[in-house]
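User: Good morning. I'm curious how adenosine-5'-diphosphate would be positioned relative to this chain. Could you predict the structure with it bound?
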Amino acid sequence: MMWEMVIGLETHVELSTKTKIFCSCTTQFGGEPNTHCCPVCTGQPGSLPLLNKEVVRYGVKAGLALGCHINLVSKMDRKHYVYPDMPKAYQISQFDIPLCEHGKVELENGTTIRVNRIHIEEDAGKLIHEGSTYLVDYNRCGVPLIEIVTAPDFRSVEDVLLYLEKLQGIMRTIGVSDCRMQEGSLRCDVNMSVRPKGSDKFGTRTEIKNLNSFTAIENAINYEFERQVDILESGGQVEQETLHFNSDTGETVSMRDKENANDYRYFREPDVVTVRVSKEEYDELLASLPELPDQRMRRYVENLGLTETDAKLLVKYRRVAEFFEAAADIDAKTAAAFILTNIFKSVPTEVEREEWQIKVSPENFRELVKLTSSGKINRNIAKRVLDRMLETGSAPAEIIEKEKLGGVDEAEFEAICRKAIEENPAAVADYKGGKEKAFQALIGYVMRLTRGAANPAQTEAKLKELLNEEA
Ligand code: ADP
Ligand code: MG
Ligand code: ZN
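Assistant: Good morning! Here's the predicted structure, ligand included:
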């Protein structure tokens, strides 16, 4: 029998507001354990949470970017569980009235993923294993999160990866999160069931908690798919349970703890006021939504003439797209080629491309594209100049001046062309005898003597002019 996987995702995105959701502690990643805490985010008796309005605004932006309906009035609820990562034994989240509902994400492969809801909530602390001891770090307690819950619309690993990449791009573009899986600011719970291909009924699902890398997600899904299929093919039944993925063994294992005791005893959080978004605020947030990666990509293809592949690579990282746009009006294709071939080579990792801490300023990049596009320097030289710019951060004009790459002056150029003719009598004779190819040898000679600084078209013209003079 052919089996099909059915997946729904619950994705946690840490918001990059300066302060936490209910207190003024910093949200900064890292730091000495338990130094970014106060009585509120560690849930001390008598402390009172005060909702950070910025978190609501970020949540609304995320909802709008995913095409959601925004509930202008929503509320916070307590979700109870006992576990050392949450000192007050409940998480303040949203239960029956989330901030956003009914959005969708269109994937490149044509699949549409429905977004059921987005709610705001607080993050929990981190448990650190040390031998047989658990240590707790509460720095992350109270960091604001949005949880984005999809319908069970994924049918393959590809769907899941495309969705997460797209989500990353959108969240980064609207500036609500850096979505760094390696720092835990994007984490995923995978809900999965299998069914015979063609069936329209859903099977029993399991939930794999807290996956934090693309590789882990891919491996966990593939493993769990096989596991469930094996159970069903041998006549068994999949048990609905919460699983943990062990990336060392590559297996999913049952988590017999808080998550399996699925009675959260939700009730309204009495200490936090009703969450309200005014109509004015809503309109303002809607109007301030920037161009999203998809729209940007289409614009690059339709208005700037880039290929879809190149456009996709450029819009993947917000800062790269902005850098590109500093020079795109001059010559989009040249600017794109410089970034995608030369600069990307020196910035090889995802993280580096996202951070985009290169030494070349947008102004200097623009200048280089101008010099190249106008023919002041040829492409070979431009690439050399760009490499030096990446190393030193200097302006292109400065590098050209210092390294004498600025083409050749008129008189010197003519002298070199004459020399090419004098020193290569055989090539000249061949050319005159009708062998066009022999001409390339003369151009090559000029290129060598000018260390690549001459413009090939100009060289050809000059050589022909001199040869005609001779004749
Ligand atoms: P709960 O209320 O128990 O958390 P939800 O209805 O909110 O359950 O679903 C949680 C997640 O599980 C959603 O992402 C949803 O798409 C997914 N899901 C629900 N049923 C299935 C299923 N049979 N197979 C795969 N995923 C499912
Ligand atoms: Mg759930
Ligand atoms: Zn605090």
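The first strand starts at residue 3 and ends at 14. Residues 20, 23, 25, 37-38, 40-41, 142 surround zinc ion (ligand 3) (CB under 6 Å).
Let me know if you'd like a different ligand tried.
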